[in-house]
Each structure stands twice: as structure tokens, then as C-alpha cells.
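Section 4.2 – Deliverable D4.2 (structural model, holo form)

The reporting period included a commitment to supply a predicted holo structure for the target in complex with S-adenosyl-L-homocysteine. Inputs used:
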Amino acid sequence: MTPALVGSVAWALMVAGWYVIRYPFERRAKRARVERSRRGPAETLRMAISLTGLGILPGVFVATGWPRSATYDPAWWQIALGLGAMAGALVLFRKTHKALGKMWSVSLDIREKHRLVTSGIYRRVRHPMYSAFWTMALAQALLVPNWIAGPAGLIGFGILFAARVAPEERMMEEAFGDEYRAYRARTARIIPGIF
Ligand code: SAH
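Output (C-alpha cells):
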């Protein structure tokens, strides 16, 4: 097996793992009624951009080899780093889903009996699921040996992140008031103590 092949297979396994982790929460969360929502055209657009970068472009590359002219031969150390990032991302992703439980949403929703989670993985960082997605995008950049399809996840998710955090925090502030303002004041966004 070449490093390029291992990288592509690992990327596909990462997407499969991501879905296996998310599926049961998606089913459970669907049963909790949505009380208010911040979905709209802007949210749909940023989700589509993120999906293109994290799913469609690397998926097309792994399945067909397109765009071939941007393909390169990665070193083993690069694939090893990518596998490490992949494992970290999936562990973190599962922890955040477990912590949010039925309050989780693929988009921006406040559900019936929504509680603000501020402990466990949410104690020092208020967007740990986005930390997991950044790590996953980094893993993709290392594992997918293509100059376009590899970094596309960092760009696509980066756009979603930059455009979504402010409206998400506004929504949480409207729903939880001072409790959220205090929580926001004592936490970082995605890296404990740093950002
Ligand atoms: N930004 C968070 C969650 C992403 S999922 C993270 O990165 O971990 C988005 C949904 O999670 C939103 O619909 C929002 O209502 C909910 N949510 C975000 N932070 C929350 C928290 N601390 N407690 C409860 N629900 C939260």
C-alpha cells in the first residue's frame, strides 16, 4: 500500500466513523421539538459550502482521482500525522455529541426543555464540536493527497465557522441570557485558554 492509498482509505473511514457516531444522536434529537430556530438562506449556504469542502470535493477525489493534476505523493509521516488527527477528531466528536444529547442539532435550533451544557467537554471551551470539525478538516488536509481536495475542508469549514459563531452565540444569549453571558466570559471558543 502506498501512503496516498492509505490516506484516501483513512479519509473514507473517517467520514464513515463520523456518520456512525452522529446517526443515533440525529435520531434522538429529532424527537425533541424545536422551539426556535436560526435557520435561513445564510445558514443553508454556509452549510452547503462546508459540505462541499469536507465531503463532496474529497469524496469525488477519493472515488475518481479528479482533479488529477493537483495530486501528489505524500510522505508516510504526513499520513501518520493525519491518522493521529483523525483519531483525535473522532474521539472529540463523540464526546461533544454525548454531552449535548438531544440538544444537539445539525443547524441552529433551540429545542424544547433546552439546557445550557457547561460541564465536561463544554467546561473550558464553548464550541468543542467545532474544535472536532477543525481537527477533522486538518486530518483531511493531511490524508487526502491532493492540493485542492485536501485543504478544501479547512476552507469550507472555516467559512462555516467564521459565519456561524456570531449568530449561534446571539441565539444562545437570547435563550439563556445572563447564564450564557457568564459562560461565554469564562470560556474560549475552540482552544482552551487560547481562542
Ligand atoms: N457550537 C457547539 C454546538 C454545535 S451543534 C459546539 O461546537 O460544540 C449546534 C447546536 O448546539 C445549536 O442548535 C445549539 O442550540 C446547541 N448548543 C450549542 N452550545 C450549547 C451548549 N453549551 N449547551 C446546550 N446546547 C448548545
